[in-house]
Amino acid sequence: MTTRSQLTRRGFGRLAFGGTALAALGSPAFVRAQTAITFAVPNPSALTWLPYWVAVGEGYFGEEGLSPTLEAIDGSSAVLQAMTAGQAQIGAPGPGPTLGARARGVDVKFLYNLYPKSVFGLLVKDDSPYQTPADLKGTVIGVGTADGAEVSFTSAIMADLGMTVDNDFTYLPVGDGGTAAVAFLRDEVNSYAGAVSDAAILAARGLNLREITPEAYLGFFGNGIAMLESQMAAMPDLAPAFGRALVRATRFASDPANKDACLAHCAAGNPQEGEQDYASSLFDGVLVRMTPTDAYIGEGYGYQPPEHWQAIHDSAVASGALSEPISDLSAVYTNEFVGGWNA
Asked: Which of 49, 116, 332, 339 has its CA 20 to 30 A from that of 278?
């Protein structure tokens, strides 16, 4: 069985300097010294991090003077730990874990809203008796990891219903995609809080699922790009360059004529995923969720609506994920780079 670390190493090994090579062959005048960086993400699905792999494959990072390595580790908390330990210069945590880290004194700052539409959903079997989250009282909810962004997302939903973990329901970490399918088939879980990638994999495993996420929570944005403020000071050019490459890649992926090329770039990042029959549908789902909502489409890719941050913050306080409110929520995120990325 191929492990996550093997997928990461194998997928990136052929492409780490691909951007540089493309820049050198296509436009020698733009060749520059490449800055090696590590980008930490909370799961190994290349399609989940679509703009990254497209930016690698199309040479956009190389043109920005970057030579990135992607490291897939387990969950947003692990991403934040890697950043804090200096093992990654930039990462892709969820907003809930980012708030928690900031409350603990970590100088993390959210820079880029990669998923302006919720990447998570609360799923049940199509033939189950559960119709709303209120019906999940006394049940087991499956999650990818014990401290991932899907946990804070689901805890906020349940808190609004007056329910708390261990008192009214239980979380069971069951992993992503295929292992979650096994947990469903064995009736180890009654529902699953997962990302768009997990939903696509579960469907491919023959599980007919139904989403019971409340409408209000579908607007909660998902993972994004973050850096430590100390790292931003040490590498002031990284955030502007990384974001520009992601925006270019997202625009490229948004053209239907480029879908096959994008799928090929992602398959190079995770060959096992690229062979699956759900890859095309997952691509479509990811792209929809990366497109800004109608209210903010004019702000450009990466924009973070302050009222959305406030809603996520308030839900985290209500659910107990945050023991007390953060006094200055604006310190947690910034939109200062958005204009330059989208120019």
From this structure: 116
